[in-house]
Design a protein that fits this description.
Order of helices and strands: HHHEEHEHHEEEHEHEHEHEH
Number of strands: 10
Shape: elongated
Largest sheet: 8 strands, mixed
Number of helices: 11
Strand content: 15-25%
Helix content: 25-40%
Radius of gyration: 24 Å
Strand order of the largest sheet: 4-3-5-10-6-9-7-8
Length: about 300
């Protein structure tokens, strides 16, 4: 493929096939999207590699993996593809759809209540929100931006820290009175604790409670009686309905504290969580303007979530 020479239809088809295969990490899934056979996809990639004189994929037993050259070309092609979509949408106009993936609790308690403000500011942009605890495959091109709770480790991806989090036990005022919990963490022995078993990737089911007890009440043992959920907002809802004591994350439970549905029986949010909220996306030379607009807007929304004094 001589430098500066215009692409032929065949070469363009080979590049597009490579882009789709790189997104999926699979010739078979690329074949499904392109309505080709896996053999045809493999032949197109082989012709592209021959024309470039570069190996773009490592062929493994059950998958294919980009080489260093393949990764470089994939990033360039993805950027060009995004630019093409922007041009077809009217240049740098802030229009179109943004697909966002978020963990259920932060979506329910923090993101969704704020979305009306975004659509008011950017009426030509729409958001397609997906929620779940599963990992996100950015290569498939189905998600533009993800909002995750965890540490800063996102191998092969770009991330921006959105905001910190703080932890403290919460329960209904009725439950706190019934179990004599106010200022008495030792009375947890007679209470039910509520666990978010998927607080962050690969954590222990009781990870948040053990963090808090180790730091704030090291002489208190974790009660055996518990209810377990895979979402922090469900823990908080159970606490509101007098099921027990949940480990509250300030960013999620603040509205319920403000209305008095939840209380802080052992004091305020003095323990900083080792995890934080991050905006995560695929590595690109530049984000599409519509995605950058949402990322910057979310960062602005997080500015009022300063470290609490309590």
């Amino acid at each position: 493929m001589p430098a500066g020479a215009p692409l032929t239809a065949s070469q363009f088809a080979n590049l597009h096939t490579f882009l789709v295969a790189a997104r999926h990490g699979s010739f078979a899934r690329a074949a499904q999207e392109l309505a080709l056979t896996p053999s045809a996809v493999s032949h197109r990639i082989a012709r592209l590699e021959a024309s470039l004189g570069l190996l773009l994929f490592q062929r493994l037993t059950r998958q294919v993996k980009l080489t260093q050259h393949g990764e470089r070309i994939f990033v360039a092609l993805q950027t060009g593809w995004d630019d093409l979509h922007a041009a077809l949408a009217g240049g740098d106009a802030l229009a179109g759809s943004i697909t966002v993936h978020a963990r259920p609790s932060i979506a329910q308690c923090w993101l969704v209540p704020r979305l009306a403000g975004f659509t008011a500011q950017y009426p030509e942009l729409s958001i397609d929100l997906r929620v779940g605890n599963d990992s996100v495959d950015f290569r498939a091109g189905q998600v533009d931006l993800a909002l995750h709770y965890g540490d800063a480790s996102f191998p092969g991806l770009a991330s921006r820290k959105l905001m910190d989090e703080w932890l403290a036990p919460v329960c209904s005022p009725e439950y706190a009175r019934e179990h004599a919990l106010f200022a008495a963490p030792q009375n947890l022995a007679g209470a039910t604790v509520l666990h978010d078993t998927l607080a962050w990737p690969a954590c222990a089911p009781d990870a948040e409670w053990r963090l808090w007890l180790d730091a704030q009440a090291p002489d208190v043992s974790l009660p055996a009686r518990s209810l377990r959920f895979d979402r922090a907002d469900l823990c908080a809802q159970a606490a509101i309905h007098h099921a027990g004591v949940a480990m509250g994350r300030r960013q999620l439970v603040q509205p319920w504290l403000a209305t008095g549905q939840l209380v802080l029986p052992f004091g305020g949010f003095t323990l900083a969580s080792p995890q934080a909220y991050y905006l995560v996306h695929g590595v690109r030379a530049a984000l599409p303007a519509r995605v950058q607009a949402l990322l910057d807007w979310l960062a602005g929304q997080a500015l009022d979530t300063l470290r609490p004094s309590l």
